[in-house]
Amino acid sequence: MILYVELECVFYEGNSLKQKRSLLKKLISKLKNDFNISVAELDYQNLWQRTKIGIVTISNKLVHAEKVIQEVLRVIDSYPELERTITNVERL
């Protein structure tokens, strides 16, 4: 089972692309290391207040893949510097 998540976030802290990229780099590294998933910034690379992130996980069981994605979203939500605004989950 492949689960794909596309989410948009708004940044409230910081006021530069440098700060946004620093936070995203830290977040993406943490997610990749902790959950063994694929993560990439998909859009809004040149806007410091907004981002779109794609996340993919693969598992032989749907329940496990959903559990991984829920934990990933919990970690993202734990960052006070950003707010998740739109989240789309697809089974592939």
UniProtKB/TrEMBL annotation:
<dbReference type="Pfam" id="PF04456">
    <property type="entry name" value="DUF503"/>
</dbReference>
<dbReference type="InterPro" id="IPR036746">
    <property type="entry name" value="TT1725-like_sf"/>
</dbReference>
<dbReference type="InterPro" id="IPR007546">
    <property type="entry name" value="DUF503"/>
</dbReference>
<protein>
    <submittedName>
        <fullName>DUF503 family protein</fullName>
    </submittedName>
</protein>
